[in-house]
Design a protein that fits this description.
Elements lengths: L1 E2 L2 H23 L4 E7 L3 H16 L3 E7 L5 H13 L5 E4 L9 H6 L12 H8 L8 H12 L8 E5 L6 H9 L6 E5 L6 H5 L4 E4 L17 E4 L3 E4 L7 E4 L4 H7 L2 E2 L6 H21 L1
Parallel strand pairs: 1-11, 2-3, 2-4, 5-6, 5-7, 7-8, 8-11
Antiparallel strand pairs: 9-10
Helix pairs in contact: 1-10, 2-10, 6-7, 6-10
The structure holds guanine.
The site of guanine (GUN) has 9 residues, from strand 4 and helix 6.
């Protein structure tokens, strides 16, 4: 069994991004800039946003951090997004989700200019992806595909089972995998699927993105399958310094006994999500400079 090390792949890709960022700066005088908006203090969101900001700086980009209290009015957020849309120094806008209760996240996300929507969450980018037009690809699905390729698996003609139909991961991933460039056959399983194991047992690759630990166990896999675990769940652990530890959606030990390759949590998909965000921010800045 091979561990698919997301940190190694992310480091390789980030070195390439940093090189291109430096070239853009020296040739065009443009420093890619990502505006990161965090509303409230959800601990998981704080740690994701901090990691995104740090990654920007390490790649030679600017990070514009905007942290607001949980009771910020929705109209104020929409106005903030509008001002970031108009700010020429900003290449990418990221509003960390979920937003606090009472705020209509769709209204805030939809206010982001598609040209700066480096998460690929706006209806325009989602629609363009669906019909195969140029767009910002959503970061986690794009990262999952990079990881599968990195594992050595050639996706064309393979059967990939995706578990979970979220707008952020499952649904866009199913679309990306089935594009001609990738050419995989996709089954999308979800809470309405009667017998998920009947599908995973015939899958060459299983991607699990449900937000529930234990969704996938080794007995549900075909011998030699590749497993990509998108889940990041905090489970109480009094022996851990922070009082919790991170667990994926797959039961790692039983899956690792059957799979040919599997991503760890942490250190699997997470570093790739951030890397693809940097990739999109660089792309946006490059478009502006040309
Ligand atoms: N919340 C969980 N994942 C993501 C992501 O990729 N982008 C944003 N903005 N929020 C998230």
């Amino acid at each position: 069994m091979k561990l698919i090390d997301g940190k190694v792949l992310a480091a390789n890709l980030r070195a390439e991004i940093a090189e291109k960022t430096a070239a853009l700066k020296s040739q065009k005088g443009v420093v890619p800039t990502l505006a990161v908006v965090l509303v409230g203090e959800d601990p998981a969101s704080v740690s994701y946003v901090t990691a995104k900001e740090r990654a920007c700086i390490e790649a030679g980009m600017n990070s514009k951090e905007i942290r607001l209290p949980a009771d910020t009015p929705e109209d104020e957020l929409v106005d903030l997004v509008s001002s970031l849309n108009a700010d020429e120094s900003v290449d990418g806008i990221l509003v960390q989700l979920p937003l606090p209760k009472g705020i209509n996240a769709k209204r805030v996300v939809d206010a982001i200019s598609p040209a700066k929507d480096v998460d690929g969450f706006t209806p325009e980018n989602a629609g363009r992806m669906l019909i195969g037009e140029e767009c910002f690809l959503p970061c986690t699905p794009h990262g999952v595909i990079k990881l599968i390729e990195f594992s050595g698996m050639e996706l064309s003609g393979k059967h990939v089972v995706v578990i979970g139909r979220s707008n952020i991961v499952g649904k866009p991933l199913a679309v990306l995998l089935s594009r001609k460039e990738t050419n995989a056959t996709v089954t999308l399983c979800h809470t309405g699927t009667k017998d998920i194991a009947a599908f995973t047992r015939i899958a060459d690759v299983v991607v699990v993105a449900t937000g529930c630990p234990g969704t996938l166990t080794g007995d549900m896999l075909k011998e030699g399958a590749v497993v990509i675990d998108v889940g990041v769940n905090r489970v109480a652990d009094p022996t851990a310094a922070k009082g919790y530890r991170l667990k994926g959606d797959a039961d790692f030990d039983s899956c690792a006994r059957v799979a040919s390759a599997i991503t760890p949590v942490p250190g699997g998909v997470g570093p790739l999500t951030i890397t693809m965000l940097l990739w999109n921010t660089l792309e946006s800045a490059t478009r502006k400079a040309t």
